[in-house]
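$ run holo --ligand "magnesium ion" --emit tokens
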Amino acid sequence: MLVMKFGGTSLADRERIDTVVSLVRSRLDRKPVVVCSAHAGVTDLLLQGAHRAAAGEPDLSAVRRREHELLVSLKLSPKLVEDDLERLDQMFRGLALLGELTPRSLDQVAAFGERMSVKAVAAVLRKRRIPATAVQADEAGLVTNGRFGRASPRPEAYTNLARSLRKVKGVPVVTGFIGCDRDGNVTTLGRSGSDYTATIVGRALGVAEVEIWTDVSGVLTADPRTVKDARPVEQLTYAEASELAYYGAKVIHPATIQPAVEKGIPVRILNTLDPTAQGTVIRPPQGRRRPRVTSIASKRGIHLVNIVSGRMLGQSGFMAKVFDAFKRHDVAVDLIATSEVSVTVSVDDTSGLPGVVQDLEAFSKVTVKEGAALVAVIGERMKQASGLAGRVFTAIGEAKVPVLAISYGATKTNLQIVVPEESEKTVVRALHEVLFGDG
Ligand code: ASP
Ligand code: MG
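-- output --
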């Protein structure tokens, strides 16, 4: 068996959906299970619509127009999604009456993009004589925790999905992105969450491979907008891919790798616009593992929080107190660097940061520096690549960029460097040149 996941851009219009049909047809002998995102732009329209509805302006016309145009171009009847649009219309009006939008209702609305797209894709497949059935993942048992907007699966999700998908007639066409909590409330797995659904379904069925069909030919050695001669990366290990996904290399949703790792399922990133391109395969390390750098990623908008305690030296429990404050306010920490008297952490989602700072100030001196970028050099077993750190820091020094913090974890999959935001591109280019340049 095989999971084929198609992202929003791969389902954007008739032409793209034609490609999807031929790709599914070409793999019928491998028993594909299809996972779909919403058509490009629909989730955004739904989210905007929900916000406007809660502000007193319930208006479904943009969503309705987009869905209808697509269905008409596919020669399908708009009736196919009429029930969904009707429910959405009621929800928008309900939101307008209540005048408020909870994370729970936002997820309920957002889910409709996928609910409708799977119906269209399954219908197109059937029209082209490929038996297919649309499957709503929440109804098929994709049970998650109750974290609206960023849910993750509960253990029973896998057995539920395996049981219900095995019963489906023809090719199952499953909604990405959505699930439900134990009380039956609809949840979503976070933006781009359909990638995550693909590996969840893959793990549930124990498939041979998960294909993520997107609009780029896999992962590159750096962001091509920054580095002109960035090259495709043929293979990545799970650890490398997780690091990369995390650093804004927007190719896959960060949690996607977890379910694949648990069963050692290869995840292949492929391009619907260029289906024969090799793409990138993410899988366990093959054969002898040579130390190597696979890519450079970076993330802007980083805050550096510096926490100083005159008496940290030898004080047990100080770190626990520090991280407890971050936990209390649900702020995730990226890089951590410590000395005897201070701890520096970098944070990218800063919504809870003021609360953290207030708590930390009860027992330490805190400064927050904004406008930093985190640059990560990623590669399995980089530790054995002798002189690597030297080359990296020489290159940054020669570019005359100050290093604000560094971290090099024990697994050495990732060397992280914090620099001023305005130097991000300079640093990425300089590092790409020394690590991947022809010289
Ligand atoms: N439709 C959702 C989004 O736009 C999920 C996905 O596309 O993977 O974020
Ligand atoms: Mg995506």
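-- notes --
Residues 295-436 form a domain with the VC0802-like fold (CATH 3.30.2130.10).
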